[in-house]
Write a structure and sequence with these properties.
This protein is an all-alpha fold and about 60 residues long. The relative contact order is 0.16. The chain has helices spanning about 1-10, 25-35, 40, 50-60.
Length: about 60
Amino acid sequence: MALLRELNAVLGIPATLHDAGVTAESFDAMADDAMKSGNIAVNPRATTKADVLALYQKAL
């Protein structure tokens, strides 16, 4: 895991949504967009907007 974190740092890949400049205030709009994506339809687990918001909060 440490090597992956190091590689991401070298490549400039943010470790968290916060590091990427995302704020909690943008979560609702992001979740709306996620729910419209084709990814939700093919997810083997039923996903709700609340699920998406919880993932964003955890990644912040």
